Amino acid sequence: MDELRRYGRVFLTFARNSLVRDMTFRMNFVLQCVSSLGWTAMNVGFYLIIFEHTGSIGEGTGWDRDRFFLFIATTWFINSLVQTFFMPNAQEFSEMIRTGGLDFALLKPIDTQFLISFYKVDWSQLSNFFAGGLIAIVSLWNLAHREVDPMVPSALSVVLYLVFLVCGVLIMYSVMIMLSATSVWLGRNQSLYNFWFYITNFSRYPMEIYDRGYLGKPLFGLFTFVVPILLVVNVPARILAAPLVARQGGANLYVVWAAVTTVIGLFASRWLFRKSLLSYRSASS
What are the residue ranges spanned by the domains of the chain? Predict the structure, then answer.
């Protein structure tokens, strides 16, 4: 417990220092928030236009407008947390290797992975988290006050939603750490952000749209069971929104696999990160 409290105090110090740094350049912070919210508003407008032409995303899936916006809100919850706490550090890891800054991190009396993961916090990215919260509240209100098939989530579904929201963040973190660890062997992994953008694009839509056709089924299998990006948003969103597909048989398989994948991902990323440090050679050597 003393060790956990110590790491908690260190994290709070990192978070406070990052906030002070952001507030030093307040206009830049405000512009970043506005930019993120503008991107969110454009996405909302885009999906509203889509639902002018269709009743659901995927025929027979049950992902109607309000349920799909709960899905989108879940996407923003997870992505904003990852981009706030992990993305700035993952992007800087390859630069630390190239310049020798990792030498100083290794000398610190604290776990290196913890230091690399939480050293910087990009507070401006939390603007999308609050935007997602507003959209989720509106969607839940609309679902609860429908004349036909009203839906009010149970207390259990809300708790499970929060649990698997955390699991989604941890899966994303594991993938990011493994991508960052490759920088030790590659020297400079500038493709990290591009690859991250590509895989998060796959996670932004219900998994049912991939589970058909000659091209869709291989993508469905790859991003569900090998690189389980589709589970990140789909599992918590299915639990809370309860679309038609979530009420059918087999839905529990994805819930169990998401929990197992979270544990496997954390252990695998930890192993790969420590393995990469064994191969690290100081920039001065």
Answer: 2-278
